[in-house]
Inverse folding.
């Protein structure tokens, strides 16, 4: 009978660099970026202490493409994944090892939608789709759609509690 094991990592931190998206020969997308997490505590002498850990994150396939589209340096994110250690021989002939986090889930912990209803740009990253029509910006003569507001009001009347 095989024994059970668990390899799970949960992190909340800030990106240390913009994500780098590439494609392997099979066509699968892979995205890598750095994540910094910190912890603070008070020492026995009453001094406030802080330490920072740096993590290498790798995302694959669709999650890789999403990370590349939405994330940028400095963004706060939640990453859930697993540890994976890989080894290789360096140019100097020495064997090297590194442990990365393979992301299985990512939650962006900042709003990508501005107060005016438009999506904010994330620096050099591609901005999320705009609420404007595909033909460009709306003219002043176009009436604002009121369907969304009335639909929300109608739903609240149907809630049983």
């Amino acid at each position: 009978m095989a024994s059970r094991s668990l390899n799970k990592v949960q992190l909340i931190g800030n990106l240390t660099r913009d994500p780098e998206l590439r494609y392997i020969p099979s066509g699968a997308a892979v995205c890598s970026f750095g994540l910094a997490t910190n912890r603070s505590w008070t020492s026995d002498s009453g001094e406030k202490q802080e330490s920072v850990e740096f993590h290498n994150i790798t995302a694959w396939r669709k999650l890789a493409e999403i990370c590349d589209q939405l994330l940028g340096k400095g963004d706060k994110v939640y990453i859930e994944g697993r540890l994976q250690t890989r080894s290789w021989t360096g140019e100097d002939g020495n064997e090297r090892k590194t442990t990365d986090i393979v992301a299985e889930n990512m939650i962006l912990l900042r709003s990508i939608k501005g107060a005016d209803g438009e999506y904010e740009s994330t620096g050099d990253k591609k901005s999320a789709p705009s609420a404007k029509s595909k033909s460009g910006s709306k003219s002043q003569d176009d009436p604002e759609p009121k369907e969304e507001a009335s639909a929300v009001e109608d739903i609240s009347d149907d809630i049983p509690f």
